[in-house]
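Board notes, transcribed. Complex of a protein with pyridoxal-5'-phosphate.
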Amino acid sequence: MVDPATPDLLALLGARGPRGLLPLHLPAHGRGRGLAPALRHLLSRSPGSWDLPELPQIGGPLLEEGAVAVSQRRCAALLGASHCWFGVNGASGLLQAALLALCPPGSQVLLPRNVHRSLLHGCVLAQVEPILFDLPFDPLSGLWLPPGPGDLEAVLAATAAAGLPKPAALVLVDPTYQGQRARLPELVTLAHRAGLPVLVDQAHGRGEALASGADLVVISLQKAGGGLAQAGALLARGERCDPAAIERALLWLQTSSPSALLLAATAAAITHGASAAGQRQRQRAEAIGHALRHRLLAQGFSLLAAADPLRLVLLTGPIGVSGLEADAWLMERGVIAELPEPGALTFCLGQVPPPRLVARLTRSLQAMRRALQQPPLPLFRRPPLPLVASPVLPLAQAWRATSVLVPLELAVGRVAAEPLCPYPPGIPLLCPGERIDRARAEWLLGQRLLWPGQIADTVRVVAD
Ligand SMILES: Cc1ncc(COP(=O)(O)O)c(C=O)c1O
């Protein structure tokens, strides 16, 4: 039931927001402060003047001629890609198109356990089976860590040893939502040596994976740039993926009326990010990120060592609270974080961090600690997952099967018919088609307590 006091969308967006908020969430433009200048200029023009169809002069992401094609070529050159396609359905839609282009129906794809759910949806659309591989785990934060080269070697060896068919591609997530980075050049070299093209989900990055040799890279200009929500780009480099296959996949998935505003937002954000002014803006933001980090460490807070200074990840276990509790307490006081998780709370500082951020956030976190501090939480339990695993029932078949809801306690031995997926971060803890063994069921029961309200005490399983 919706609370009758909740305003409708137009009323909410049209209202003056509460004063004194400290918004530290995505989009990274921070409620307009960090919008790319060309986009800000466009939005200040007569309302609606920029909402144009695919007129011949404008064209579209799949057309050879027109302004969109010119912008895409310019952005490809700026980012070191051979091709660039703008998208208007976020990183999700572009990841799905990339998957469809790389993996023929009936093939397999290697996906890391920290994969965003959009790629599972992509597997359903592409009729592709995931081979899910486990990742290193950090018991202090409860987070998966990026794989190292040794981890990937073990995954490739285990895939072959399990008699699984050779996958059509490898997907990596880099950086992670929390800003952690893998040693991409080594990982990509290993994959290429094994004959696998590599798709990197850089929704939280800026296309740097291309320089590491990645074949396809997806970026989201609202997460690490001054673009609008849904603005994204798919970048290609090298010979391993046929541009015609990518364009065919984009055609299947894309609206036939892509918003000129969103396409322009992508162009503006990429162009600004690569400009001298954009780089200076980023350096200023990063300096604030470093100052904040030093101040909080000096105050005794534990922070995740993240490679991205604009992602601040507070480890909440050492102060005895879950990231979800800390988030609820801060939210009531106007501090809006991006990603609460059982052992961590991630703040996105944005392209232009809010005024007086260091002092304000330090004060709020000190107050939160005084109010909520308890003895440290126990370390988090590693998920009991095999190094590589394929669903026992094809993903799409399980997801569409006749299903029944059973309590998690009674799900042992059953096959999942839906993902268990707290959102954000949108990373499935269980995938359709996976058999729930006892260890997994017990771990999921533990997860339910760690994600209150986000994981039900029942799970939908395939009917007998
Ligand atoms: C790693 C990762 N990939 C892809 C996505 C999907 O991005 P979008 O919401 O722009 O479709 C997200 C969203 O949070 C994400 O965290």
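The chain is about 35% helix and 15% strand. Residues 322 and 342 are 5 Å apart (CA to CA).
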